[in-house]
Amino acid sequence: MAAASNAEHTQLQDMEEDVGMEEREMDSEDNEEEDMGEENVDDEEDDSSEDEKENEAEIQRLEEQLSINAFDYNCHVDLIKLLKQEGELFSLRKARQRMSELFPLTEEIWLDWLKDEIHLSEEEPNREKLYELFERAVKDYICPDIWLEYAQYSIGGMGLPGGIDKVRSIFERAVTAVGLHMTKGQMVWEAYREFENAIFSTLQPPLGRIPSHEEQELLNKQLERIHTLFRRQLAIPLMDMDATYAEFEAWSEQGVSDTIKHHYKKALQQMEKCKPFEESLLAAEPPKMAEYQNYIDFELKEGDPARIQIIFERTLAENCLVPDMWAKYTTYLDRQLKIKDLVVSTHDRAVRNCPWTMGLWKSYLLALERHGADHQTISDVFEKALSAGFIQATDYVEIWQAYLDYLRRRVDFSKESSKELEELRGAFARSLDYMKQDVEERFGESGDPSCIIMQIWAKIEALHCKNMQKARELWDTIMTKGNAKYANMWMEYYNLERSYGDSAHCRKALHRAVQCTSDYPEHVCEVLLTFERVEGSLEDWDLAVQKTETRLSRVNEQRARVAVKEANMARQEEDRAEQRRRAKSDKKAQKKMGKDVHAGEKRKAQQDYEDNWNNGTEQASKRHRGDEDQSIEEQMETETGLLGKNAPPGFKKPQQGASAAPPKQSDDKPELRNDDNSVFISNLAYTLEEPEAKLRTMFEPCGPISQIRPVFSTKGTFKGYCYIQFESVVSVSEALKLDRQEMENRPMFVSPCVDKNKNPDFKVFKYNTSIEKQKIFISGLPFSCTKKQLEEVCSSYGTIRDVRLVTYRSGKPKGLAYVEFAEETHASQAVLKMDGTVIDGNTISVAISNPPRRNMDKPGSGRPLDPIPRQVYGARGKGRTQLSMVPRSLHRQNLPANNVENGTSAAASASTSATAETKSLSNSDFARMLLNK
Questions:
Q1: What does the pLDDT look like over 184-224, one tens digit per residue?
Q2: Shortest CA distance to 108 belongs to which of 137, 65, 132?
Q3: pLDDT one-digit tens code per residue, 677-715
Q4: What is the domain count for the chain?
Q5: N or C: which end of the chain has fewer CB within 10 A?
Q6: pLDDT reading at 14 higher than 90
Q7: Backbone angles phi, psi at 95, to 5 degrees
Q8: Domain shared by 798 and 829, yes or no
Q9: 779 with 877: CB under 8 angstroms?
Q10: Is residue 625 part of a domain?
């Protein structure tokens, strides 16, 4: 037994040693894992420190950017996100506060801010500051989630004196503001009822005790509150209102009254009417403007002001940067509701969201005046409008006019002098300085070429102040600004003198008009003669006749010289064209003489077929392309081998599948040609092999094809264009959709097949030469930029109709693009936000599309010369200001320096009609010409 016990003891010692060894091994492994863990922690700390440094550098950069341009909306948003990541709550509060002073904040930004402030207030309770913050939040947009957060936060203070009444007040305001919200209003009503149910539970006496009379009255009163909330909610059309009705049936011990049932059914019917609009909003993609507009039109027909207001608010909560929608909303409030606080606050929100829209500022000023705002408030709003950054120079003219109109209405002109009158005159003078110094420097034009502001000032001085001396001084200034050559300007001045001046100044004005007017001198001559017939003496009449005859004779001479010059230029152009035609025909004749008789006969047979097919359609190759500013002007030839039948040895003729070219007998059937069923393909590569087979593969999905005819030169080489005739005219429209599809990395041009002899004015593409406010022009794009990539960049600013990348004929990109939006406002937003941004390392320039005038009005082109220079809307690439990069000297007409008479350029009159006859016309003839215009 002793041996056995010793053996057991030895075995136990061995087991202990084994366990000890295992523990030591585990300890060593744990130590190794701890060392590795410490190394990983160090690596993570290094990475986090690097990220922190990068974030700090980015925060500093954003701060510097905002110090330069405080109105950079995206910069504010990025800074808030970074500060949120870093956990810098106090810096974050400051950044949010700064952004809130300039812009209305979105629902997401407000909710984040409010939740952070609630978290901070747990350490430093200050409910009043949070209440103030909530009040600011609910004024920016009408959002159910913000109102619900506001009400729930107020419940936390119900234990304070007056706390329950404050909670009820906030809930009442919430259901008034968003209780009609079809999809989210229900949650506010339910939260309100839960709050009242919670109070009812606290009023219940302990189980087993009968409530006293006073307690029972409180309970009954509370039950009545809950009952009233159910009744009010069931009378409003809301989604899932049947669940609320079922809950009310279960809650009410007395059942549902007939009155409540009646209101519930009526609301249910209204909800069914609105349900399709709500479903379309749920299915639509942002910005849902079309769906919201349909909903607004429906509510306007229904005519419930509260419901109209809530649908406008819902629309603007998702489309706050759409000026047209703000304009419709404020117009409705101005004309229908006319509630001061609501109208003024909505106008204020409109200009804070879309400060670049002059019309909103103008409406705001009128609304303030309409509702009796004090003078200082209106003046402050006007000053903010001047610093808003309008897109066009004319916007500044209009906002100044609106403000000057307001100042004029304040003046009591029965008094000879007053503070208001002096302020009006000072404002007129300041407006002129502002146009000259600020607007002209920014846009390269004053925006007021006709001096409308000065004209209004002159009329006020003449009519109200009886100060014709000041009015005449103003008109002298107007005429010195390049308006003396226009007859209508002189007539304005003349009418002012007729109304408030005297005959002497009227006569003087008309004499000056006869001498200076270059556009319609006949008209001012007739007015002068009529004036002298009525009021003048014989000497006055003789002088007027002499001046008018001299002036009109000089004008006719100038017009005759211009007409002769243009006729000579047209004749020279025709001579040059004739020389080119002769040279080409001689060249063709020389080629034909070098061929043998057999080849000549074969060419003639081929030519007959080609002429029947190509009669006039060859001119379709001149296809105008606006984006490349180029045209394909390849003159179709009809030499030997047009179909490639006489190709040189070794040249591989194009095949159609496994079959050869069309049999020769088809050449004898010109009646097979049908332009209505055909399309013309151009811009194909000259090196394209087997073009017929490849084109058939591409165009067969459009419909059954009768024949495909590629065009070849005399040497048998492919000329880069062909004709495709379908069996049905329906296939043509499908084929035209393939325009600009690439074939072997080169865009092909697909156009209708039109006989130019029968339709000489046919144009496949008409180049737009006017401003396109819904389209933006982008330059400086990287060549690697794709259409899809550009569409993704621009889609955040509105609905896109088309994206067009500009390429060379070879298909290589030019770094230019046009993006067309559904609304003008979307394009304006894209200009403001995208101009100067960076795409793949390239800084792009963005502007409203304003194509230059085409160089088509050359002498001999058969088009009349247009003497009026193209209106300058601003050069591309300057965002809001649209600064013109064209020298100002190029904006003026280039007039000869000599031939100046009495201080007025006689050459100015050369801009009148180029078709004037050389013989002299009578005054009555000129008058009839003017009236016929």
A1: 999 999 999 999 999 999 988 888 788 888 988 999 999 99
A2: 137
A3: 899 999 888 888 888 888 998 898 999 998 999 998 887
A4: 3
A5: N
A6: no
A7: -65, -40
A8: yes
A9: yes
A10: no
Please check the confidence at residue 667 and state whether its pLDDT lies above 70: no
Q: Which domain holds residue 69?
A: 55-103
Tell me the average pLDDT across 157-169: 91
Whether 734 maps to a domain, the answer reads yes
Length of the chain: 933
pLDDT in tens, 531-559: 999 999 999 999 999 999 999 999 999 99
Residues 442, 389: contact at Cβ < 8 Å?
no
State which of 752, 787, 814 marks the end of a domain. Answer: 752
- The verdict on 747 and 798 lying in the same domain is no
84 in a structural domain: yes
Element at 710 (helix H, strand E): strand 705-712
Do 748 and 788 lie in one domain? The reply is no
Q: What angle do CA 376, 382, 387 make, to 5 degrees?
A: 130
Asked if 66 and 99 sit in the same domain, the reply is yes
Read off the tokens for 475: 């008109």
Helix, strand and coil in the chain, % to nearest 5: 60, 10, 30
Whether pLDDT at 261 is above 50: yes
Q: For residue 803, which amino acid is it?
A: V
Dist. CA 232–CA 226, nearest whole Å: 10
Residue keyed to tokens 């941004």: 837
pTM for this predicted structure? 0.59
Instruction: Tell me the torsion sign for CA atoms 473, 478, 483, 489.
Output: negative
For residue 711, give the CATH number of its domain. 3.30.70.330
Is residue 584's pLDDT more than 80?
yes
Question: Can you tell me whether residue 818 is helix, strand or coil?
Answer: strand
| The two structure tokens encoding residue 592 | 């034909």
- Amino acid 880: pLDDT: 38
Q: Which of 811, 827, 848 is the last residue of a domain?
A: 848
Q: H helices within 69-162, ranges in order? A: 73-86, 89-102, 107-121, 127-140, 144-155
Query: Rounded to an integer, what distance in angstroms lies between the CA atom of residue 460 and that of residue 425?
Result: 10
Q: Among residues 114, 117, 182, 113, which one has the least CA distance to residue 144?
A: 182
